[in-house]
From TrEMBL:
Family according to the record: Belongs to the V-ATPase F subunit family.
Entry-linked Gene3D superfamilies: ATPase, V1 complex, subunit F
Entry annotated with the keyword Glycoprotein: no
The species this protein was found in: Blautia aquisgranensis
One matching Pfam family: ATP-synt_F
Name of protein: V-type ATP synthase subunit F
SUPFAM superfamilies in alphabetical order: AtpF-like (SSF159468)
The entry's keywords: Ion transport, Transport
Domain of life: Bacteria
C-alpha cells in the first residue's frame, strides 16, 4: 500500500517527495473534494496524509470521508509552519479521555 499527500503548500509536498511520497497541492474546497475522491478511488493508496489546515478549514469533507470509507486511513500532519494545536494537546486529550489529571 502507498501513501499519498494532499497539501496546501508546495514545501510540504517537496519534503514528502524526498521521502518517496507522491501528492498534490490544492487550495480550494472543490479541489480538496476532487483530490480526495480521486485518491479514495485508487485502491493502491492505503494512507492519505492531509495538512492540518484542511482539518480546520474543511472539517465536513474530512469527517464525511472518515465516516463513509473504511480505507484509506486519513492522517492529519503539521505543515512547514508547525502544528496548529496547543503545546499540551496530547496531555489534555488524555485528561479528557480518562478523566484524570496527569
Amino acid at each position: 500500500m502507498k501513501m499519498y499527500l494532499i497539501s496546501d503548500n508546495i514545501d510540504t509536498l517537496t519534503g514528502m517527495r524526498l521521502a518517496g511520497v507522491e501528492g498534490v497541492v490544492v487550495h480550494e474546497h472543490d479541489e480538496l473534494k476532487e483530490a480526495l475522491e480521486r485518491t479514495i478511488a485508487d485502491k493502491e493508496i492505503g494512507i492519505i496524509l492531509l495538512t492540518e489546515k484542511f482539518g480546520r478549514e474543511f472539517p465536513e469533507i474530512i469527517d464525511d470521508v472518515k465516516l463513509h470509507h473504511k480505507t484509506p486511513l486519513i492522517i492529519e500532519i503539521p505543515d512547514r509552519h508547525g502544528t496548529g494545536r496547543r503545546p499540551d494537546f496530547i496531555t489534555s486529550y488524555v485528561n479528557e479521555a480518562i478523566g484524570l489529571k496527569l
